[in-house]
Structure formats: structure tokens, C-alpha cells
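Two proteins, back to back. First:
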Amino acid sequence: MDRQTISRLAHAHHPVAAPLSDGSVAELLERALAPEEEGRALDLGCGQGVWLLRALAARPRWRAVGVDLDTAALTWARESAEALGVQRRIGLHHLDAREFTDREPFELVLNVGATHAFGGLLPTLDAARRHLAPGGRVLVGEAFWEREPSSAALAGLGAAREEYANLATTVDRVVADGWTPVYGRVSSQQEWDDYEFSWTGSLAQWALDHPEHPDAADARAAADLHRAEWLHGYRGTLGFVVLVLRRD
């Protein structure tokens, strides 16, 4: 079973692919979209387009563009846009986010949990800068170390110690790059636990509901492995922060 399929099944009951509650998502979007009544939003790595769809639902005069390489996720986004009646206000592109160009800038650029597509946080912000209208905002979500990672945490994440920094250093790097945080949200332990239990539970439930499917065993194995890596490895070690940024 390929990674993209596993991710879609795992996020069936938690479509925001990050450890954030619906309330946190709504508050972050409110801060990122305000005060403009109309504008354009760009999500560089939109997945199923959840952030953009919620933005369009909250702002009936905004338009949006999403870019991703996951064809099935984009199909889901298009179907959801039609169901919400916002399909005329959103454009979805099957494209590497690094290759996307547009003739007009955007009032809001998003990348939540997909900075790996650009090679890290600062390269992601550099890409966002190229698309941002004067006075616009960037909504970016990135992991950080809540505490020094153990070997079990690093193994469970398949990460290197240098891949992330602590929260203070993460924010300092953003500020040194010429950005000003105007809002931020750190995921709580409850949000992390809800997210991880939903991720592993949704995938395991699919395997139980489809025992004859050729991928059922792989799905169950992936759920069991992920759960063990989280509970015995990185729980309480990996943090997640979403920042609303403006240029100096």
C-alpha cells in the first residue's frame, strides 16, 4: 500500500492533516484572513484542500488555489468543493509546489505540515515570499522538539536530531529571516493524542472493515507500527506550531 493511500485512509476522520482541533483551525484562519473581506489564498501542498475549503466557507468573497501531487486527494478536494458550492472559487493543480507560478500575488499563502516539499521551513518561507502580495500573510505549520529527542523518538519518526529545533529557536529563525509572527498556535497534548489515535484508528478500522482487500494486512501493520512508534517513541517529544506571519 503506497504512502499516499495510507495517509488518505488514516485521515478519514481527521481531514486536517495536523494535530489541530477544528477550533484551532478556525481561529488560525480567522487571524490569517482578517481583515480583508476579499482576496486570494494559495496552499502549497494542499492535500485534500481542507484549509482552503474552510477559508472559502468563512469568506464568501475570497478565491483560492491549491497545489499538490496527490491525484486522489485533489479529486476529493474537487468533490468537496462542489458539495460546498465553492467550486467556482477554487482552482486545483496537480503539480510540484516548487514549480507553481501565477501572474498575480496572493493575500494569503499556506503550507501546514508540508515544509518537506521545499526542504525545510526557511526554504518554504522563501517560496511563499515569491507568491505573497504586499501586506499579505503566511500561515505555516512546522514541527519542533518539545524536549531533547531520544533514540527511540528519532527512530519512530525516521528523523535526524538536526531536522528540527526547539520552539524558541524555530521562531528565532523565522524572525531572523525577516518575518514577524502576528499570531501562533502550539498544538496541545490533547490535540496530539486525538490526532494520533484518529490516524491509527481510522487506518486499523478500514483494515477490519475490508478483511478480503489485498491491502488489508498492510494497512493494519502500518497502523500498529505507527501507534507503537508514537506511544513508545515520540509522544511528548515532537511538538507542532502554526504561525501567522507578515513581512517586515
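And the second protein:
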Amino acid sequence: MRIGIIADSACDLPNDFIERENITILPVTVQIGQAVLADVRNEEATMNFLSGETAARAFEAETTPFTVQQVHDLFLGKLVHDYDYVFCITTTRTRSGIHDNAQQASFTILNDYKAVRAASGNNTPFSLRVIDSQSVFAGVGVPVIEAVRMRAAGESPPRIRAHLEAIASNTHAYMVAPDLNYLRNRIKKRGDKSVSFLSATLGTALDIKPILHCNQGETGPVAKVKGFAAASRKLFDFTAERVASGLLTPTVNLCYGGALDEMRALPGYQHLRDVCKDRGVEVFESFMGLSGLVNVGRGALVVAFAAPPHRFG
């Protein structure tokens, strides 16, 4: 059975991994003033877009996911020909409309695919499952990596589906953002209350950085640390402890809103890599996509993994 995997462009994974595993990307369109770019995870295009006046107004960005019709057309135009079963793994529905759009499109796709496949001489069934990752940024990549791994192992779609749903509810994404004023302005525009005005003001004045946690679609602060470097070390060290305690998948996924060499120079990074190597855990690293950058600002660090329930500390 030919199994396809789809993720939206807010899913942070290395581009070479996406290309090698033939992962289809659902673009998110970002508009800042009159400037518009479809995010297809192109680092150079992203950095060119976020320059000059556009960069200064990035917190005002409007993001638009693929519509129901666009998802429908993508499947019928290509995916129902290339695959027999497709997993569409999306950013948590609490933060993006892409999950609901894909879910709505799936109903019409399953009604319309037979004639399309029959026209090319294929009368076998086609199936589609939309999975809510319940996470953001690098967190979305954790179940995507698992889908790739299980596909390579020859697992059946029902087993893959059940596993992905279990992994999604146990995926934890932690983030440190360097610019609280940017983050506060952005979430205010989105109607979010994850970081209050007072916290942003005091945090900026005192150089206090919150560590934010996303699990099961809910996001909130779990720690406050003075200085971005110290907060990054705390996050890396905590992740190393989780790895040593045992993860649910052999994966740690990192993304960073800047050059990856900057991330690799942060304190605690090499220790985490050493622990992962000792435990046979693969580390993925990627440049944060455009939709992530406009939501949390440049220089943000995100670490994600699947693990049993735990407390940060």
C-alpha cells in the first residue's frame, strides 16, 4: 500500500528530510501590509520577506491556511493518484484553521475520488485521515517523523493511525522567545492571553524569559529564567533529563528562528546532543518556518519530544 504523509508549513522539520521522505506541504499564506508570501518552508525566501519595513511590522502579519477548496483540489489533482492512504498531520486546531479545513475537505474528497482514480485505470479504494498534532512548530514534526518511521517499517494504516493519535496527545513542545514585547504584541493581535502586558513589560525590563509549554493544544508558561542563554540552557538540560528518563519515540525535534549555528552555540546544546547520542535518540534541527517566525519573533528556540506526563523543573 502506498502511504502518503502531509503536513502544513508551520510544521518545523529539516527540508532535506521533507524532500527525502516525499512529505507534501500545505502552504500557509502570510501577509504583512501589501507584502504576501506563501510559506513553503524556503529559508531564503523567508529571510528576504522578513527584511526592512516588513520585518518591523511582522507582528501585524495575517496568516491564511489552505482553504477547504484548495485542500480538496490538491488531493484530487495529485494525491489520490500517488497514494492509497494519506495521513494529513496538522498544527493544533486551537492555533490554526488548517485542521478544520482539511477535515471538511476530507468528506468531499472521499466522495469524489473514485471517478478520478478510475479515469487513470485505478479502481482500488483511497483513504484519508486528518490527525490533529495538538502541538505547534517543532511539536508538529514529532508525529510526522513517527509516521515516516512506521511507514518504512511496513506498518498498516490502522496501526499507524492509532500510534499517531497516542503520540500527539503526549507530544510536548517547549519554547523560549527572546523578545517578549514582540510576542506580547503578536498574541494580543491574535486575541491570545499566554503572555500578559505586565509580564511582557517586567520581563523585558528585567531580562526575564518565560519558557512556554504546548501539550494537547494548550499553551502556557512553565518557568521564568533571567536571560535568553540561561533559559536555553535550562530547556536543553531539562530535555536531556527527559531523554535519559525515556521518551515515547526516539526523537528530539529542534527549531530555531535564525541561523542554526547560533542555536548550536547556546549553552546546554552539546550536552543534549551527547545524551541523545548515548540513548540512541535522533535529533532533528530546522530553521523555523515563516508562519512560526511571525508568530513568536526571530531568535525563538523550540524543543519538542514525546514523553509520559511530567512537570517542568
